[in-house]
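Table S7 (text form). Paired inputs.
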Amino acid sequence: MKSPQADRFSSVWDAIADTPEEAANLRLRSELMDKISELIATSGWTQSEAAARCGLTQPRISDLLRGRISRFSLDALVNIASALGQRVHVELEAA
C-alpha cells in the first residue's frame, strides 16, 4: 500500500511531466521564457514594441510574458531570442 504522504519531486517540472525527457524540455522552455521576459522588461519595451522586434503579434508576446509555456516550442523560443539579438548557449551536464 502506498503511503498517504505526497510524492516528492526535485522540481515542479518533474511533478507535472510524464517522462524525464518531457520535464527537461519544460525546464528549458521555462528558462528561455524567463530570460526573454527579463530582456523585454530591462529594455523597457512595451508588448507591442517587443512584438515588432520579434516579428510576432502583441498577444503572442503577452502569452510569453504570462508564462504560457504550452504555447511555445524550444524552436520558437530560440527564434524569438535570436530576433532580439541574443544567442542561445547550450550546455550539457549529467542529470
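Next pair, protein 2 of 2.
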Amino acid sequence: MTLILNLLWLLCGGFFAGLAWLFGGCVLAVTVVGLPWSFSAWRIASFVFWPFGRQIVDRAAYTGEDNPVAGCLGVILNIIWFLFAGWYIALIHVFSAALEAITIIGIPFAFKDIQLAQLALAPVGKMVVDKP
C-alpha cells in the first residue's frame, strides 16, 4: 500500500516538491552561510520524494547520543531558519494540504503535507527513519 501511495504522491506533485527542496539545499550549500541548513533541506527532500512508510523523529531521542545540533546550537539554527524560510514554506505546505483534503483520495497526502509543514518550521535536529 505504501508503494502505491508513494507513486501517487510522486505523480501528484511530490516529485516537484522534492526537486524544490533539493534545489533549495543546493542554493543553501553554495552560500557558505546557508551550509548548516542545506543538510536539513536534503533530508527533507528525501522525505518528500518517498514519504509513506517513513517518519520524522528527533535525532537526539532516536539515537540517544548527545549532539551539538540537538542542544542550544540547534535551537538557534531553527530560530534563524524559521525567521528566514520556515514560516512561508510551512504555509505553502498547509495551503497544499487544504487543497488536497478537499478530495477523499487526497486526505493521506494532506496528512503528509501537514507533517512537512511541521518539519519546515524547525528542521535542524530531525531525521527521517523507516517506520517499524
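The mean pLDDT is 85.
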